[in-house]
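Let's sit down with a protein and look at its sequence and fold side by side. We need material for that, and I hope you will provide a protein of your own picking. Once you have written the record down, we can walk along the chain together.

***
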Amino acid sequence: MHSKAAAEFAILQQLSDPKFIRAFLTELDEKIRLTSENQEHWLARANLCRRGGFLKEAREAFLNYQRMAGGSAVRRMSQNNVTPVEVPTANGAKIAPIIMIDGFLDAKDQKGLLDYAVANKEAFRDANINSKQPQYDPDKRKTLVFHKFEFMRDHFINHISENIAQMTGDLGLEQFQVDIQEIKITNHVEGGFFRVHTDNRSEFAAAGRAITWLYYFSNVPSNFTGGDLLVFDSDIEKDEYQLQSFTKIAAKPNRLVAFPSWYYHAVVPVRQTSKKFADGRFAIAGHVRKVACKPGR
């Protein structure tokens, strides 16, 4: 990782530092205690919590924010939403709507998936930057990837297909016709990362990736630190994001996460003591691609 990437991640680590966040929350909670019906205080609390990775607290604060907004001012969160839909932040950006499901697989399938990935170590390769830049660049990304895996592949594809309408609604997207699903296994070992990027820069009407999802299945307990997913507040029309405003999601084993592919995101560097492949940050990474449609549909 070059110095520019290292400096960027250092800033993000400071912004999401739990001690730093808790200090601000202590001050804010006193204001909330005195003026509990102040809608903007609850939104501020939600934004601090999600930046620190306190997702349960963030959800509770968002629910209070929505309760005070009332009526149809904001779209209600489903039971799987960590963050809501259509909430603006700074400079025209919006909070990325995210759904998250913990305990996605039973213990047997989770272990079977990990055993399969470890047994197929030789099938993993260094990942390219993306499908449009088919070259390896260690300053943009350090990820191991296994594309043609078989174990439980159909299980994940079928689950997404069967629940696509619910996922689309929870993520605030218009219903669309699915083209194909992309799916692969990734592993981030010592020093692994993925700098800030988006999976789709095209307008919604164009064909391309629409939903990005990940399923984490590392050892329990995890034998690494870092590897958090950061999903940034983004202005999709301008193709911009706010570096200081994001939701941090820990790569907790047996957790499924999904968000619209237009939102910028990153994977912070992984740190391992063992340096073993089997102790890495494993994930199944998927993309639901849509066909082109008429604007406004």
Notes: DSSP finds seven helices and 15 strands in the chain. The mean pLDDT is 93.
